[in-house]
Design goal:
The protein is an alpha/beta fold and 447 residues long. It is built from 15 helices and 17 strands. It binds pyridoxal-5'-phosphate (PLP). Pyridoxal-5'-phosphate binds next to helix 6.
Length: 447
């Protein structure tokens, strides 16, 4: 049996309809270098999704390889439950330094979903310790995605992913997604005065004494199709939390570590959340690691005599894994040494320039971009914004066509996502855009 057959025999792939997968030829990756991935037959592809939005400086980055190898010579893992390890201390210091002011404590885990699960449990327990146990309502946004554990799914607002599990979920107050192209309030963004933010304010005010916090993805709702919030929405969300004495929890799992052009999305609007979750790019895309950062105010509420049971009873076996923390430290050193964010700005501008060419295509309804996150929404009819039917698999068709041209993408329904590693060269980025333009044209015009 070859490797593709062995994969089909035993591996169950995430977010994948295995019936379709089994009917196709799986792409088996063997190697990578920079923004390029190579399959077992030696074919090369541009990694246009940064290995699911987490790769930053490229594959086999010397400094990160070196940091992991050096740490392997010391210890790979020892628990953080009641003990400390060297790289997790150093990384916590760095994270506090590079995240918005006020966040001073770092709680580690190993995935974006766990970082958010921790955020919501931490926020919930915080209010209990503050003598406000009636605060049990979470506010999040429609179209939100915070991961696949049950708490994170409860906060989520994407019916396709979340509806099946509805009976298992706790009730959440959903405010309208700041999605101008498909406004659920059916308003015109030019004249609405950011009505979605007003609605958020209304919801929080109405439930003022019961709200645990407002949970949101700052600037970009990624998994719902790269929905870019209007400027000022995030700042207004912060004001709403401050005015109503509740917590602001920012999920920077997708937006963190340079993705939006600044280290964290919160910096674009000078927002200081009470809790911030990050993951994905934290290790440069090398190893599973995530972190939930909190203020002293939150941390201090958990301090007490042992007998008071104020401990945060949450943890994972691999919390603060030393190898992963060493990789993260390596990645942060590259950010500094190579001035990655400065080098990124002309590439963001190039992406913006080239994306303009997509607006003229007959079946492109909307082109959305924030920094190095972009989405091209394909529609059946531009005038009416009628989406392609789910069964047409239009996004999947474009992605398969792109793969034949040496580019790896993954769609979100009818949205073609562009999420190259920050290290991608201008030449590779141009090639990526050429391929996507060509594939969208052939697939949509051949319908
Ligand atoms: N939060 C956001 C905003 C995300 O985009 C994702 C993943 O795409 C997650 C949480 C979940 O992260 P993970 O897949 O590492 O659990």
């Amino acid at each position: 049996m070859n490797r593709q057959e062995r994969d089909k025999k035993h591996v169950w792939h995430p977010f994948t309809q295995m019936k379709d997968y089994l009917a196709g030829d799986p792409l088996v990756i063997a190697e990578g270098e920079g923004a390029i991935l190579r399959d077992i037959d030696g074919n090369e592809y541009i990694d246009g999704v940064s290995s699911l939005w987490c790769n930053v400086h490229g594959h086999r980055k010397k400094e990160i390889d070196g940091a992991v190898i050096e740490q392997l010579g010391k210890v790979a893992h020892s628990t953080l439950l009641g003990l400390a390890n060297v790289p997790s201390i150093e990384l916590a210091e760095k994270l506090v330094e590079i995240t918005p002011e006020g966040l001073s404590k770092v709680f580690y885990s190993d995935a974006g979903a766990t970082a958010m699960e921790i955020a919501l449990k931490m926020a919930f327990q915080y209010w209990r310790h503050k003598g406000q146990p009636q605060r049990t309502r979470f506010v999040s946004l429609t179209n939100a995605y915070h991961g696949d554990t049950i708490g994170a799914v409860s906060l989520g607002g994407i019916d396709l992913f979340h509806e099946t599990f509805r009976p298992l979920l706790f009730d959440v107050l959903h405010a309208p997604s700041p999605f101008c192209y498909r406004c659920e309030l059916r308003l015109d963004p030019k004249t609405c005065g950011m009505a979605c933010a007003k609605k958020l304010r209304e919801i929080v005010e109405q439930h003022r004494d019961e709200v645990v916090g407002v949970f949101l993805e700052p600037l970009v709702q990624g998994a719902a199709g790269i929905i870019v919030a209007p400027e000022g929405y995030l700042k207004e969300a912060e004001c709403i939390c401050r005015d109503n004495d509740t917590l602001l929890v920012c999920d920077e799992v997708a937006t963190g570590f340079g993705r939006t052009g600044k280290m964290f999305a919160c910096f674009h609007e000078q927002v200081k959340p009470d809790i911030l979750a990050c993951g994905k790019g934290i290790t440069g895309g090398y190893l599973p690691l995530a972190a939930t950062l909190a203020t002293d105010e939150i941390y201090d509420a958990f301090l007490g005599d042992y007998s008071e049971r104020k401990t945060f009873f949450h943890g994972h076996t691999y919390t603060g894994n030393a190898l992963a923390c060493a990789a993260a430290l390596g990645s942060l050193r590259v950010f500094e040494k190579e001035r990655v964010l400065d080098a990124l700005q002309p590439k963001i501008a190039l992406l913006e320039r080239r994306l303009k060419e997509f607006s003229d295509l007959e079946h492109v309804g909307d082109v959305r971009q924030r920094g190095f996150m972009a989405g091209v929404e394909l529609v059946h009819d531009r005038e009416t914004k009628t989406p392609y039917d789910w069964d047409e698999k239009i996004g999947i068709q474009v992605v398969l066509a792109a793969r034949r041209c040496g580019l790896i993408l993954r769609p979100l329904g009818n949205v073609i996502v562009l999420m190259p590693p920050l290290c991608v060269t201008e030449e590779q980025l141009n090639r990526m855009l050429d391929v996507i333009h060509e594939c969208i044209t052939t697939v949509t015009e051949g319908e």
